[in-house]
Amino acid sequence: MQYTREAAIARLLKSFETYYNIHRFPENETPITARCDFFEHSQKYVLSQKAELWSADCEEFLYLLDIPRLTLPLYEQWRDYIREEGMKLLHIGPGHMYSFITPVFVCDTCDEDARKALKKCRIYKSFHFSLHGWMDFHTAVVDLERGRIDANRSGHNTAKILKKVLYSQTNKKKGELV
User: Could you tell me if residue 174 is inside a domain?
Assistant: First the structure.
């Protein structure tokens, strides 16, 4: 199925709304259409919650960007911007396990040099020698013209989810896309 950027973003947001807190941004001067926040808190205790053995906080901040044509300068500009904005949102401290910052570029076309830079992107940061967790930067591009989804090594699972949401076939006998 051939999507428009708006239809692809709407489908992604619809599938994410179960798991993420979605913050939609009105049409403004940035291509960021939404930020999807995910928080998870796990803990183990003995007899009462006051006797806590351990706790772990995990979070993800996924940004959806609507860009007609992704070029290398645009990719680098928005990669750096989202990294800065995402770092401001992290809750670092005791109990923090990991955080993911994930920009997803939804575009009609993607230049090959931008795709290569995206696939080579490796941004990782540990906090207090990993005692307060770490941050990993996942990034992906949805190239609607080619029907192709690419991601960096850290964002491999993000790409699998995007492919499943946008291009999975539920009725394989008839070959219809849902």
Answer: no
